[in-house]
Amino acid sequence: MPTRSSSGCRLCGQPITTQPLTLGVLPVCNRFTRDGRVDHSWALDIVECEACRLVQLREAPPPEIVAPAVPWIRYREPESHLDALVERLVSFRPLAGRALGTGPFEQPLLTRLAGRGLQIESLDLEEKGCGGRHPYLETWQARLNAADLAAPAASLGTFDIVSCRYLIEHTSAPVDALQALKTLLSPQGLLLIEVPDSSKFLAARDYCFLWEEHSCYFVEETLRRLAEESGYRVLALLRYPGALEDALAAVLTPAEGSPAAVSPRGSSSLFQAYRDDFAPTRARLRGKLATLAGPDGDRIALFGIGHHAIMFANAFGVADMFALAVDDDRDKAGFFPPGFAVPVIGSDRLLADGQITTCLFAVAPHIEGKVREKLAPLAARGVEFRSIYAALDNAITKDLAP
């Protein structure tokens, strides 16, 4: 399966000539180690197609580079909107009898469809026997192609509803993936594609949402174009709001004929501003954190060590400024986050450290209140809490204006 887009856009195939946002060669975010060595890195250049305006990685890493080396890497995707989403799905096909989930985030949706009387099936695309690695999203998405879906299509038959949640943004060949999924659909079947919407973090100029595992960064316009390029008609394009990024759900059905030609529109002002603001933001943030870290570099903690925190630290070049990397996930304890000089510790160690004067949060907004309660003794002695997320009022980047 192709993994690179140097020769053209992943969506429309047109040459990409725009200046990239270059983050440099960064550690792969899920490669936690016991000794702090960086064993896998990737050059992250983010580009926007001038023809269709899909923001994407110029070169996406092959699955073996980003497949987890530890068994406990896991991701959660939003579920609170699924009752409303199922209501809309069923309204399009009230007589639907069979539904198929094609990824690791399908069970909450399938459970709701089963409650509506549908027969449900799950597609298992995990690669077996992968030499000690732990297959997950990247090995799964790489098998969304005609060759790998031929056998499931033959054995399972077709379905009235096929769901693919939070996988398409990972694939390097999204048009091929949607075309391959068509073999699992009945003639009037519905394909549900759900992806994170990128417009909020682009507008906020938040760089921790970039990730070597996401080949594509969709907004409404490009998700609609993906559907049309892949031979579908869009029945509905639904948005479900989130604090940092919304969920976009496209309800599709197979279409006849070729997609309409789209005239090149040029690079968007949204991406241009996002690209151009990175270098000055990075320089100002490094200066600010160097001051906060103090002469001995022992005053800043980072709480919540997921891929957003790791991207924030490495893309901005500030990983070495954190005296403590804090997370209460016991699986992470003692592991070094990629690019960090310190291993993960629990919040008890943070509470006992009298040198910390600033704690950066890399936790979801709905969790931050509970974290603040847990760390109340720090606030009582004057420790400042700030967020890594640029869209939030307490973001560490808020007061970095030149």
From TrEMBL:
A GO term for molecular function: methyltransferase activity
Domain C-methyltransferase residue range list: 269-385
Pfam families given in the database record: Methyltransf_13 (PF08421), Methyltransf_14 (PF08484), Methyltransf_23 (PF13489)
Biological process according to GO: methylation
Origin superkingdom: Bacteria
Domain Methyltransferase putative zinc binding: 9-65
Keyword Methyltransferase: yes
Alphabetically ordered keywords of this record: Methyltransferase, Transferase
Protein name: Putative S-adenosyl-L-methionine (SAM)-dependent methyltransferase
